[in-house]
Amino acid sequence: MNNDRGFGFIEGFLLGGIAGAVVALLMAPMSGQDTRDQIRSEGIALKQRGQDFSGDRMHEAQKFVKQGKQGVADAQARLGNAVQDGKDNLQEAVDSGKQALAQSKNDVVNH
Is the pTM of this model over 0.90? Predict the structure, then answer.
């Protein structure tokens, strides 16, 4: 998810909550104290929903980071194994070349 889209969603979520609270206050006639109590209650509920939302997103981000780190560790292990295999193959080729050279020298000297 790109950051602009995520922030747009959060802004829309918060503005929608505020607009809904304002409309509810305007449509329901109540005393001043009841209105203040309702505003306080709606504000607390909206704050809690925002915290829950951000906590969920943080948990998902941490999960993705953990998966990414594991993927990097796996790739490093595979690369290390491939490098070692390459070194082993190179050493075998060098040894075979030395052996072939020694055999060729031996053949030349004996003929």
Answer: no
Task: Give, in order, the Cα–Cα distances in Å from 23 to each of 18, 29, 37, 72.
Answer: 9, 11, 16, 51
Classified as helix, coil or strand, 2 is coil
Own/partner pairs, 30-39, CB within 8 angstroms, 24+ separation: none
- Show the beta-strand stretches assigned E in 31-80: none
Average pLDDT, the chain: 84
CA atoms within a 13 Å half-sphere pointing along the CA-CB vector of 49: 13
DSSP code, position 28: S
Distance between CA atoms of residues 85 and 107, nearest Å:
33
- Per residue in 17-26, pLDDT tens? 888 877 776 7
